[in-house]
Predict the structure of (Fe-S)-binding protein.
Amino acid sequence: MTAMDRHQQAYSYCSLCPKMCRFSCPVSEATQNETHSAWGKMTTAHLVQLGHRPLDESAAKAVHACTGCGRCTSFCKHENTVADALFEARESTIKNGTQPKGAASTLATFSQSQNPFGRELSSLVNGWRSDTPVRYPLFPGCSSLVKRRELIEDTVAVSTAFGAPMGVARVASRCCGYPLYAAGAVDAFREHARATAEVFAEVPELAVLDAGCAFTLKVVYPRVGVELKTRVRTVVEILEENLDHAPEKPPLDESVGYHDACHLGRGLGQYEPPRALLKRAVRDVHEAPSSRAEGGCSGGGGLLPRTMPDTAVEVARRQANEVGGAVVTACPTSKRMFERAGKTSFDLMSILRRWVENPK
Ligand code: SF4
Ligand code: SF4
């Protein structure tokens, strides 16, 4: 049985559906192409799975035109798990050589270095070793380790100010494996998850900064039969628990919009903790017309920035416009996408740090 065979019913539901969620997909909205709607992509997978159309480059491109945001599922009466079904359809493109170049190069890099950046992460983690004991071992995610040092600095400073000090954990040198999952490398992802569970076994609890990593560890690992012994929580949920210990400071005199990162919101159901933190830190927080479970996507997931880079940026541009003004997000990937779209954006941690360190 192939990975596609396991999702036969999901593909079938969509192919028979009168496109009830047609407005919901950020990719088809950005490309204005119905082939990229949830219905279009799932129907392509359905026809391929039945052997009614070949898995050629066009079909392969269609099943890769998904960020995994889960927005279509929010509007689906069947709660059809489109993202999972499309990601696993990608396995067949690896096997028959039709995988888009961007996804193939990500896999090649991962197989060489066990992360998508081709970097050796242990030395980066060792650079963060703390001399003082910390309450929460921090798992920043390899994206922040490699590209966003300041985000880790902000998180350490804010958590300390909240009386919940965090410090980068030794096990943070291991990538959660999300790129393998998103590329459809089903067997490699399962093996990576099993090995990660063994490495993590030495740590009873982790504070995870990147919502994509937290979603992978908490939601996707169990789908492939891997349960971590480690208690995984997001940094925002830990900080919200400790909000009463935060310094008594007036909010910053700023107005910002909040973007629900898909993995944090729809993926983990964490809509309120980031809002509670942000509302303490700034005077005014506004929302996009669609938010929480129906919120838009920043285009950074599902390897879309590697397979359809211009579309990914257009998705981010549209979502930033939906939110309006300066956009705050608790997801480093979303922040990077808004930057690439030329939009003013802030990490929640950077706002919190300015708030707790405000001399007023
Ligand atoms: S996800 Fe649900 S609503 Fe959307 S096309 Fe599929 S079955 Fe229809
Ligand atoms: S998960 Fe998101 S990107 Fe993928 S088909 Fe559904 S709405 Fe579109």
Remarks:
- The two ends are 63 Å apart (CA to CA).
- The mean pLDDT is 97.
- Residues 24-27, 38, 41, 66-72, 82-83 surround iron/sulfur cluster (ligand 2) (CB under 6 Å).
